[in-house]
Structures are given as structure tokens and as C-alpha cells.
Amino acid sequence: MRCTDKEIFDNEIIDSIIKQSLVCHLALSKDNTPYLVPVSFGYDGKCLYVHTAKEGKKIEYLESNNKVCFEFDTNVKTIEHESVACKWTTSYQSVIGFGKMTEITDFVEAAYALNQIMQHYSGKEWEMTEKMLATVKMWKIEIEEMTGKESAMKLF
pTM for this one? Predict the structure, then answer.
């Protein structure tokens, strides 16, 4: 990270940013062509979980290359300056990471993954059935590297 004074080293803060985020921006690549897509997600402190339709562009990209980059951001606010345009800034916290995304085919693991997504948004546990899971593909992102960053947070 170029601006080391903005780097977040505390893993609890990084986890908190992920848990506060409503969207994961997921970057994929196929044949040297990038694809960035917002996705719903779950996080258990070790892995990220995502669901997709049974077919589509994300799956085409993942079949070609399962290496992904992901981004979360929260507490985003524009900080204005009354008279100097170049002194406007943005206050935020973010996490960027890299990992490998693999399809989950085991029912128990897929149910766990979908439950992680539902817990993230609803705050409660759900019982998953084979019928529910038959309509989606479940994916796990094994996190290989992750860094956090915050900018201008003292201005909140």
C-alpha cells in the first residue's frame, strides 16, 4: 500500500468493515478481459461465500480463471471544503483482498454458505433445504490476502 499511514493492521477492524458492508465488489478475469460485479455475500471470519445463478457470465469467467479480487467499503462520506476544490476529499474505510473462488457441491457445506449469506443480511440463522439450494450455485472464496484502509476518518 502506497499510503501506509492509512493502512489498517487490526484484523478485528478489517472484519468489522466486511460485516458492515452491504455489497461485495467481485472482480473476475477471462482471456485478459476484466469483469466487475456487485454481489451479496456471507463471511465467517475465514472465507467469503457467494451465490450465483446456475449459468451466466460469472460462471463463464470462473470456469476460465478462479482467481478473484474483492472489495468492500463502508462509512463513505464526501468531505467538502468551502473555497478550495482540491481540498474536497472522501472519508471511508475499505478492504481489498485476493483469493480463489471454488464451487461448493457438498450439500452441508452449501447450506452453511447460504446460511452465512442470510445471517449477514437478516441477523438470524435459517434452515436450508435441498429444494432451496437446487436453484443456485454456491461458491467459497478462500482468502489469500486482505488489507484494510481508512481515509479521513477523524473528520466524522
Answer: 0.89
State how far the Cα of 74 lies from the Cα of 150, in Å rounded to an integer.
10
Q: How many structural domains comprise the chain?
A: 1
Asked if 92 contacts 77 with a C-beta cutoff of 8 angstroms, the reply is yes
Domain residue limits at 83: 4-147
C-alpha cell at 86: 482540491
Averaged pLDDT of the chain? 92
Closest-CA residue to 17 (of 67, 76, 69, 68): 76
Q: Is residue 156 part of a domain?
A: no
**How far is Cα 145 from Cα 98, in angstroms, rounded to an integer?**
5
Domain for residue 64, yes or no? Answer: yes
Question: Mean pLDDT, to the nearest integer, of 122-143?
Answer: 95
